[in-house]
Amino acid sequence: MKTLISTALLLIALSLSASAQTSDRSRGQGYLFFAPGLADGNSRIPSGASIHIGGGGEGFVYKGFGVGVEIGAAGPLSDFSNHYFGMGSVNLSYHFLPSATEPKLEPFVNLGYTLFFRAGVTHGGHAGFGLNRWLNKNIALRFEIRDDVEGGHGHLVGFRIGVTLR
User: Fold this and answer.
1) DSSP letter assigned to residue 98
2) pTM of the prediction?
3) Which of 43, 48, 54, 118 is a good FRET partner for 146, with 20 to 30 A between their CA atoms?
4) CATH class belonging to 26-165
């Protein structure tokens, strides 16, 4: 009896997961970016122009809702090689997916936790919004504005330009 119930539950679970998947929608995507920006001087970056480079990925968990991770480096534009620091983040996102099977424009928002590290660790967060402009089924141009807040006081605002791959 135990085997019969286990088998029935397994078959139901497999059929539900199969019906939730569609062949035309990716379950995840990765991205690379370059972000010129501005720092307010209250963070690890002195006031003025900055750059942030990195990459990440996200998996879609339900419709347009996604969970992702990212890693990169940021620093002042004037002396990046000597004053850069690492940034890692965990993200929650929502992609406004139109009903069309192959959307050309895909706006999104994200929010999450950011870890700043080099000669110590600082905790913070981020919020951003952007747009994927799909060139074909697997490649998009990525545009995003993101505010990373270090320790609740220092802001690093960047305009991200990159590529998204699925």
Assistant:
1) -
2) 0.79
3) 118
4) mainly beta
